[in-house]
Amino acid sequence: MDYYRQYQLKNYNSFKTEALAKIFCQPKSTDELRKCLADYPNEKKLIIGGGCNLFFTKDFDGLVICPDIKGLREISDEEEEDEDIFLEVNASENWDEFVDYCVERGFAGLENLSLIPGTVGAAPIQNIGAYGAEVKDVIREVVAMDLETNEVVSFANNECEFGYRDSIFKRTCKYFIISVIFHLKRTFVYTPRYFDLNKELEDIEEPSIQDVRNAVIRVRQRKLPDEKVLPNTGSFFKNPYITRDHADLIIAEYPDLPAYPQKGGLVKTSAAFLIDKAGYKGKRIGNIGTYPNQPLIIVNYGSANGKDIVRFMQEIQQAVKDEFNIELEPEVRIY
Fold first, then answer.
1. CB burial class (10 A; 0-12, 13-18, 19+) of residue 83?
2. Could you give the CA distance from residue 120 to residue 90 in angstroms, rounded to a whole number?
3. N or C: which end of the chain has fewer CB within 10 A?
4. Is 8 in a helix, a strand, or coil?
5. Catalytic residue positions?
6. Angle at 47 between CA 226 and CA 111, to 5 degrees
7. Main subcellular localization, coarse class (predicted)?
8. pLDDT tens-place string over residues 179-199
9. In this structure, are 138 and 279 located in the same domain?
10. What is the pTM (predicted TM-score) of this model?
11. Residue 229 lies in a domain
12. Are residues 150 and 214 in the same domain?
């Protein structure tokens, strides 16, 4: 395994912002990972996957680890029924290629998460979700290395502390995910859960798992920019949770506010709606703007400086705060 000094990270974040890593390496096994941790015990560490949910505003003064640990295997569990299928997938496998693998074999549970960029290892960190599904619903176990002790530890689903775009791995930043064990089903029945997807499938009486994947891909491609053409990180902000009273105040002026009741009396609303009504749909300042088809996505039209993105982000946050008294929280990681 080689180490690189002052390594350019532009190709390791989907916003394509420039930054140098003091040290960079790509371990291909857990043994190589242990070696790089042992070789640089006192360096600050950052583990990155596909770089689809982060960007850089400055150089990283430490060790950047971009693992290349791949592999997939089916595992058996005598206590489970024949309906169940378990797959252990290593962290560096491409997420959408894995979803395609499952759909081709009729393994149900991931089809709504089609075309999400990134790696398998990033999925539980962010608890990725789309079209009424979250990855936490199909994760049985996460195998990780504790970066402080170099020990391999396993987390059952309930130990991962999954939340909305959140997990113990995201909050603590002290674990390197080695693999994820998924619990899927061998049979599939479509359950309507999301308006756009339901509408896309309305002419199909009994959608197959492949029909659902194809529909998700079509909807995403219409709404979302290709990061290879227009650098972006997908949804930039989390959808906010507000009180019922707060929602009612907004609805008095904006009757079409999306409002989804949640446990504890809160209401989940749409960050895209708020950004749109605050005047930032399709808005561009210099080389940074929101995507015209989806204001939740910030796109980079040509800046190499991550601070340009931060300034634009802060403008949106202030506009939404002024109009709705809601503070938008970034979904992406900013370094």
1. exposed
2. 7
3. N
4. strand
5. 165, 235, 331
6. 45
7. cytoplasm
8. 999 999 999 999 888 888 999
9. no
10. 0.87
11. no
12. yes
